[in-house]
Amino acid sequence: MLTAVRKTTPKAPRITAGRPAAAKERCPAMPVADWKRQLAGAIRSGEELLERLSLQAHIPELARDSHFGCLVTESYLQKIEPGNINDPLLRQVLPLLPEDDASAQQAGVHDPVGDLNAMAAPGLLHKYHGRALLVTTGACAIHCRYCFRRLYPYAQHAGLEKNINDILDYLAKHPEIDELILSGGDPLVLDNNKLRTLVAQLQAHKSLQTLRIHTRLPVVLPERIDEGLLELLQKTAANGLQVVMVIHANHARELDNAEEDALQRLHAAGIILLNQSVLLRGVNDSAEALSRLSKRLLQCHTLPYYLHLLDPVKGAMHFNVSEKDALRIHAELEKALPGYLLPKLVREIPGKHAKTAISRI
Ligand code: SF4
Prior knowledge:
This protein has helices at residues 35-40, 46-52, 74-77, 88-93, 102-105, 154-157, 160-173, 192-203, 217-220, 227-238, 257-268, 287-299, 323-336; strands at residues 119-121, 124-128, 131-135, 179-183, 210-214, 242-247, 272-278, 303-308, 344-347, 356-357. It is α/β, with parallel strands linked by helices. It has a domain at 116-357: Aldolase class I (TIM Barrel), CATH 3.20.20. A ten-stranded mixed sheet has the order 1-2-3-4-5-6-7-8-9-10. The radius of gyration is 20 Å and the shape is globular.
């Protein structure tokens, strides 16, 4: 049986409560270039989040089970509309009572995508031919309430430095793996020195041709896309390892000017940018919301890639959109968008050798 553990986050000084000046304004006192300081100062309680948004009246609606705590960066907070409990960005990060409701969550499981059965070496998941996924860290800059790894036993399997030799041995024995996916947690929570060391170790494996980075940081902490990271990614590509970054935006309003700027800099550095979203009840479950997202992504040099049905993890089932509704929304989206902006509707089924496309028959 899996052990649910609290996801790791960097230690934080207490943040000062108080409303943001306005949803679209950056706090002038915030040293926006210092992503580590912003991460350390992130909001870590539902109460504080609601107070900052003038929504104290909703504190009794907060989830009580705290194993997967609230975590929200200042950058993300600034994009949430104060006073609106139904804001689609707030719904993604606010721990609410349905997370604890046994009947609402009964269809959920601990490991909805079969990660643990696919573990080839500590933290290295090998599910698909030619591709493997490395869980680099359990830490994130934000806790998305629908996260399919919210119950992943990071404490048992994390520890990149400790496990790296086993991981490299496995890659050496499997030269058919030509693409490595850095995941987590969020791999960009690792600082540039750690990433540089990891990339150098991976780059020694000549069979690897592509490094794919799955990250939500360009969306929730755009300050992370600093010069050091851009230089590292450019050098990686120049040394023969193609870099693809898959960001994770679920709503057009997540991509404000700072996020657009971060993605523009990645694009200018030659990084291929794709987006994957999760179809979430109360967040983006309409063709209109998804169409706006696709068009906004294009302005940010990022192409929509996958629209995932919710992975049925316990604690997140209240976000579920039925397959029938998903197909209806996707059909409407197909009419509204050119083909290159239409994400593929998929579901991950444990044990399958690729994502399963959901389509009308
Ligand atoms: S969805 Fe990604 S960023 Fe969000 S909590 Fe899960 S691993 Fe972290």
